[in-house]
Amino acid sequence: MKLALLGCGNVGSEVVRLMRTRGEELASRVGEPVEIVGIAVRRLDRDRSHLPVEKELFTTDALSLVKRPDVDIVVEVAGGIEPARTWITTALAEGKSVVTANKALLAEDGPALSAAAKAGGADLYYEAAAAAAIPLMRPLRESLHGDTINRVLGIVNGTTNYILSQMSQTGAAFEEALGEATELGYAEADPTADVDNYDAAAKAALIASLAFHTHIDLGEVYREGIRDVSAADIASAAAQGRVVKPLCIATREADGVSVRVHPAMIPTTHPLANVNGAYNAVFVEAESAGRLMFYGAGAGGTETASAVLGDIVAVARNKRGGITAFPPEAAYQDLPVKPIGEARTRYHVSLDVVDEPGVLARVAATFAHHGVSLATVHQSGQGDEARLVVVTHTAADKQLSDTVEELSQLTSVHNVASVMRVEGE
Ligand code: NAP
């Protein structure tokens, strides 16, 4: 079995190392050896002398490598949209099975890639794309195929989870925690993809598509980053027995599905509350299986390579058996994706208010005017420091945003300091 590797960075170099050091074992599991016949990279002159691989295997001509007639399997770990899309569609059209970790491309073009796999009679596996080492795609695609998944709640980005964990544990402000994450290598020099939740949104689209048998377009995922989470929000959450987490939330309701990524408060007793640092976890609620939790390393070269190797063994076995395993994406349910305004949850709202009699009544009346009922109200501080913290019962996002707009116009409200969703209760 001959394999072309596209990309030899964090993940690709570990794929090479593991394939070389575990070659015999992998051959036993597949039933024949799997040989790397070429490795495409951008810079031929980059020092890769630490890798247990012959220099002659490297090339900058990825497309020619994909098209080599002796190649059976293409592993894409270069990332980005193009030229990765061209490489993958070319491979699939030629009946070559593809393993990829490319969440960005899958979230943007999943259905077209699935169709290309089907048309080419090839496999398309992407276990590493959503949660790196944590087995999630196969459980959703296979193990839970006899069940109905109603809700998925996940922490799917290690950078944002590290930053919010640090803020909770040390009381640090966002910028300080981000600086520390960058210093330790948990955040990139440009942290936008992580802290603004673009990365999590792509993962949410993949997870929800599989969970609900419905293609979720990246543009249909509601996204808010974690930049606006303040030390005061974290402290207020802690005072109420909650913790702020970067969540991916996918819910099936009677009239459609909703998929969103944003920071939210969850009770400290929720299983996701203790997922700290760079760890990831995904909590699945299925009708018959009940509540399931998948936990582990959601990033890292070696960890991600573990999932890629699992996929390589699977597609190699399928090839030997002359089969493709399953339709890459089963979107038969085709449920409507609800706009954010219709998403229903609870809210934590902090208001800086004028310290005078009757303020509480005016604030409560504004919530009531929009049909939002209050669960708790807490007042702290005096004079210029007066603050009201309101936690609501479940309401639609539109009801809450209309309430906030009206609150911000009240003369007795200086400022709506923050609005955060409360989940998992
Ligand atoms: P990386 O370290 O930046 O490596 C990218 C590799 O692709 C490099 O070897 C680069 O070549 C090569 N490459 C890029 N553009 C190319 C081109 N046009 N032609 C030929 N080669 C090209 O990236 P990574 O962290 O390994 O991530 C790879 C993929 O895995 C991404 O899709 C990422 O989203 C996904 N993933 C990563 C992780 C993780 O923890 N890192 C986790 C889950 C999923 P040079 O070496 O010459 O620069």
UniProtKB/TrEMBL annotation:
Instruction: Tell me the cofactors it needs.
Output: a metal cation
Q: One Pfam annotation, family name?
A: ACT
Specify whether Cytoplasm is a keyword of the entry. Answer: no
Annotated residues for binding of NADPH = K103
Q: Where does NADP(+) bind?
A: L6, G7, C8, G9, N10, V11, G12, S13
GO molecular function annotation: homoserine dehydrogenase activity; NADP binding
List the Gene3D superfamilies. 3.30.70.260, Dihydrodipicolinate Reductase, domain 2 (3.30.360.10), NAD(P)-binding Rossmann-like Domain (3.40.50.720)
InterPro entries, per database record: ACT-like_dom_sf, ACT_dom, Asp/hSer_DH_NAD-bd, HDH, HDH_cat, NAD(P)-bd_dom_sf
This protein's name: Homoserine dehydrogenase
Q: Which organism is it from?
A: Glycomyces algeriensis
- Classification of source organism: Bacteria, Bacillati, Actinomycetota, Actinomycetes, Glycomycetales
